[in-house]
Amino acid sequence: MCYTVGEFLFTEVTLDNLIVIASGGTGGHVFPAVCLADELTKRGYGIVFATDKRGVKYLGRYAGNAITQNISTSSRLRLYLSLIFNIFKYFFKIICLKPKIVIGFGGYPSVPFVLTAQILGIKTVIHEQNAVIGKANDLLSRKATMIATSFPKTTGLSFGEKSKCVGNPTRFEASYDTVEKPENDVFTILIFGGSQGAKVFSEVVVDAICEFSKTRIVKVFHQGRKQDIARIKQAYSLAGIDSVVQEFFDNIDELYQQSDIVISRSGASSIFEIIGFQKPAILIPYGNSINGDQLENAKFLENHKACVVIQEKELTKTKLVETLINIPPKMQKISENLKLLRICAPVKKFADYIEKTIQ
Length: 359
Hints:
Rossmann fold; 13 helices; 39% helix; 16% strand; disordered N terminus
């Protein structure tokens, strides 16, 4: 019999291979979770997602079978109260679901489900995307059966004996084996700032690109905030730059391959996509990221001479223009260094560990 999530609370569920995946609501949390869900589905497991309202839009075919939580982060007190409320709210739902395992991908919405599973004695696995362990995963790691990491070394991880480095599953894994260097007539730049693009990407970066275009012909793909689209388009138009400016690119994998260089934040998903596509990048870590995770992510590549990092507090139009002028001779070596950092088939490796943990 096919059950809907709404029925799980009151109906005895007899699915033998059910797995609950809980994650925060950003794309950086949800995208690798969906990659794992796809692999586990192929292996015969049923998947129920738990996230917040932000995360549902990234779930695709899993959205109709998702548990959507309300988590308030307006203050620390409201956050703790909403987490406690959700633990009580979904406690019996977990009992009814009888999952083989609960997998958390970080973010506060993962806490109620992973923590409840640990209280009930259900096996749990957490995945840390960043080079610094997040607060939610740090809390849950104490009782987790296994900890999966994206980076070979994760700062703040206290239970390293339980950790396995699996890499960070990305949406474009199938494309990485066929990556080729683009043959562009003009220097092509892909720019995106993630969910924390802020005005630095619509002002300082845009102004620098316009100045740089005086030294050579450029083409730009720019993913920007909705409120900034008009300004960005106007700036590029006045500078005579061929540009495509959108709030969101559905074909960003194609744009990676068409571009010579990337300018972006340094969230974990971006880092591993850049590694996969072997794309030289100028990384501008989000200055207010919790625990400094974006800076540590970027430093991982920088330490392997696989990117250029400009900290946000040091970013100026002049500095970025100078970087763009000086980087072309280094790009081939950067791509070669990126290729050495790739972890092949991370989602299959992760799924293998999940199945061993279930046993």
